[in-house]
Design goal:
The protein is an alpha+beta fold. Helix content is 16%, strand content 41%. The longest helix is centred in the first third of the chain and has 16 residues.
Length: 376
């Protein structure tokens, strides 16, 4: 009996070491703008360029993705000031708006006030973050950052002084990057690296679960993963580059036919991109295979009635097949249906939220592996 109690208490202790940060699946910028009748104007002024944040210029880059829906709340400072952020595995810096910013985007988001925090310290470097359509400028600083109940001391982060116009329509206040330090602007140590270095997590892993329809239930877990989020085994795939969470993709097939990524390609698992993005010709081919036709904005629209009869698309990663059904890759709204396959104009593929909703993702930084398993 004593032995079982020891095992039980160890299990309880272990489950408590998982640091859960709930993600809210909220309204997207597109939905909000459509309701206000402003979407057509917005999309003309701020064309979506999903590859913008993957062009390495020495400055951190982001993109104006109007379909991002998942946000988590963190706090910064003593006493804590709260902000909603996108947990972005496709970038590496943490930044939020500040009281020193008068851009439109800062006016309708929460702003950090350094003077109200007793643990705040200014850095000595400016920060510039490039977007597909504009940029954010500001300063580096450090303070205590709380994520899911974990307090990270002396975390360096950016506070904005100006923000690109499209950010006024974004739902989150800021971004918390979860990629590697090698691509961090100003070589800042990312939040998760500090969690590991400050011994705040039981294992050097984090995992992301994105729910399909429910507003609640999505979460980022720091320090491990939760077996109730997936079924079957986790497939561990080695990274080809520890910059983004980049892996080798062998092919994209439909009904056994290779339709894209012929001969292999590179793909990034990115929570900060809503779609599955690839080279223009490959994406066009995929969209025509599933029966989609492009509208004037290049979006691949489909008849909402035909989703049941559309084929699965299979992404083979490191020899293992990951299949995404039409129910997952077609998004439905009051304005019609379109596929979640977007043109990126680059050879790099991005497996964004459309893919991650289907496959629970476990990110192992020290071993440089990504684990993927079928989401429950």
């Amino acid at each position: 009996m004593m032995k079982w109690l020891v095992v039980l208490s160890a299990l309880v202790a272990f489950s408590e070491c998982l640091v859960r940060t709930p993600l809210i699946k909220g309204k997207t910028a597109r939905e909000d703008l459509q309701e206000k009748g402003l979407w057509e104007k917005y999309r003309k002024e701020h064309p979506y360029n999903p590859m913008a944040k993957f062009i390495q210029t020495g400055t951190e880059s982001m993109t104006n993705d109007a379909d991002l829906a998942y946000y988590g709340v963190i706090s910064i400072g003593t006493p804590p000031q709260s902000f909603s952020v996108i947990f972005d595995t496709g970038s590496s810096n943490l930044w939020i708006p500040s009281v020193y910013c008068s851009s439109q985007a800062c006016e309708n988001h929460k702003k950090f006030n350094p003077q109200q925090s007793s643990t705040f310290k200014w850095g000595n470097q400016p920060l510039s973050i490039q977007y597909g359509t504009g940029s954010m400028t500001g300063y580096l600083a450090s303070d205590t950052v709380q994520v899911g109940g974990i307090s990270i001391a002396n975390q360096v982060f950016g506070i904005s002084q100006t923000e690109a116009a499209f950010m006024a329509s974004m739902k989150a206040d800021g971004i918390l990057g979860l990629a590697f330090q090698s691509i961090a602007s100003d070589n800042v140590v990312p939040v998760f690296d500090n969690m590991i270095q400050q011994n705040l997590v039981s294992q050097p892993l984090f995992s992301v679960y994105l729910s399909s329809n429910a507003q609640q239930g999505s979460e980022v877990i720091f320090g491990g993963y939760d077996s109730s989020h997936y079924t079957g085994q986790i497939s561990w795939i080695p990274l080809t580059s520890a910059t983004y969470w980049q892996i080798k993709m062998d092919s994209v097939t439909i009904n056994g036919q290779t339709v894209a990524c012929s001969g292999g390609c590179q793909a990034i698992i990115d929570t900060g991109t809503s779609q599955i993005v690839g080279p223009n010709t490959d994406i066009s081919n995929m969209n025509s295979w599933v029966g989609a036709s492009a509208n004037q904005y290049g979006e691949a629209t489909v008849n909402c009635q035909s989703i049941q009869s559309m084929p699965d698309v299979t992404f083979t990663l490191n020899g293992k097949a990951f299949t995404v059904p039409a129910s997952a890759y077609v998004s439905q709204s009051n304005y019609g249906c379109s596929t979640g396959f977007g043109q990126g104009g680059s050879n790099l593929w991005i497996l964004g939220d459309v893919f991650i909703r289907e496959y629970y993702a476990v990110f192992d930084a020290p071993s440089k592996y990504i684990g993927l398993a079928k989401s429950v």
